[in-house]
Design goal:
single chain, alpha/beta, 2 domains, two-stranded antiparallel sheet, 11 helices, UROD/MetE-like_sf, 5-methyltetrahydropteroyltriglutamate-homocysteine S-methyltransferase activity, Cobalamin-independent synthase, Catalytic domain, Met_Synth_C/arc
Length: 334
């Protein structure tokens, strides 16, 4: 086995068929079903998840998604888009065999993004936060099951995206007025909340190794995620501090998978060189002093999604990540 590469979350454009063909072709060991936010409301990270959840009802307001008493036109539209995406995946993946990830918004970011019926984020209501997580369990199990049925040769995994996890842990999520912040979540509280999601999904058929939390935020709490029993973690290399390296070493020694975001994505269409990508990866991995044994646990990725890019540079970035993965593999073996 060797260092591999993959993508993260969102992708530019509005053509899901072309995008699925591209990811299956360019990422034979790291294929995933991306979001295409360019198609409009309901097709972004949070919108897809609100469409996937059936146990709760949502509506889309100018401020974002909000819990409601009954399913709305916006939620039904998001559900229809997800169903279309799965149809396209089934059509384009005939004969496919190998790993295939589906993505939903993680429980912390979802609670920080979705509003209660009377205003304020779900994050501010402990009971509503638990209900949202439990609904996410059902949505995750159902989505994995659907992909298993549609792509029988796939080893289906699930990725929960958590760009707001660091803000939740630090108490930095603002209220609607902006005058105060929601209380910070402690390490034990964070781990236990996520553990319920992971354990339920694993108990209902998903391999633990095929579960992944991705957060491109600073202070995401790598140790807390490991303690929750997750199978893999995705991080932005630029957001790592010295204490994080110790936690990454423990993660890899424990056999978990590391999706290492080595390609900056904040400035659209700016392509780093292959050598720069490899240096970034080795700058994280070499200090761990774990040698070539960890190669098959490391996946090089962009730092975050690529929705703000255009298709050609985004595609080239995936190819450069593949070339960088080969260099990193050779260097780890020395």
């Amino acid at each position: 086995m060797s260092v591999t590469h993959s993508g993260v979350g969102s992708w530019p454009g509005a053509d899901m068929a072309a995008t699925v063909r591209l990811t299956l072709g360019e990422l034979p060991t790291g294929a995933y079903l991306p979001e295409l936010p360019g198609r409009g409301p309901g097709s972004d990270m949070v919108g897809r998840t609100c469409g996937a959840i059936r146990a709760l009802a949502f509506d889309l307001q100018p401020a974002g998604w909000r819990l409601t008493d009954g399913s709305s036109l916006a939620q039904r539209g998001a559900r229809s888009l997800l169903r279309q995406d799965l149809d396209v995946l089934e059509e384009q993946s005939q004969g496919f065999a190998g790993p295939l990830r589906v993505t939903l918004t993680g429980p912390f970011t979802l609670a920080a993004a979705v509003e209660l019926p009377r205003g304020g984020r779900v994050l501010g209501d402990a009971g509503a936060t638990r209900d949202l997580r439990d609904a996410l369990v059902e949505a995750s199990v159902d989505l994995v099951s659907q992909v298993h049925r549609r792509v029988p040769g796939a080893e289906v995994g699930i990725q929960w995206d958590e760009p707001l996890l660091g803000s939740v842990r630090e108490g930095a999520v603002p209220t609607a007025s902006g005058l105060r912040r929601y209380p910070a979540w402690g390490a034990h509280e964070t781990s236990e909340h996520l553990r319920v999601l992971v354990e339920e999904v694993v108990a209902r058929g998903t391999a633990r190794a095929a579960t992944l939390v991705h957060s491109c935020a600073r202070h995401a709490g790598i140790g807390d995620l490991v303690a929750a029993g997750i199978g893999g973690i995705g991080v932005d290399a630029d957001m790592l501090a010295r204490p994080d390296l110790d936690q990454l070493a423990a993660l890899l020694e424990g056999g978990l998978v590391l999706h290492l975001g080595v390609a900056p994505t904040a400035v659209p269409d700016v392509l780093p060189t292959v050598d720069a990508l490899a240096r970034q990866a080795l700058g994280v991995l070499r200090p761990l002093e774990l040698g070539p044994a960890i190669a098959d646990q490391v996946v090089l990725t962009p730092a975050c999604g690529l929705a703000g890019w255009t298709v050609r540079p985004a595609t080239e970035l995936l190819r450069r990540l593949g070339s960088a993965a080969a260099i990193v593999d050779e260097e780890l073996a020395r």
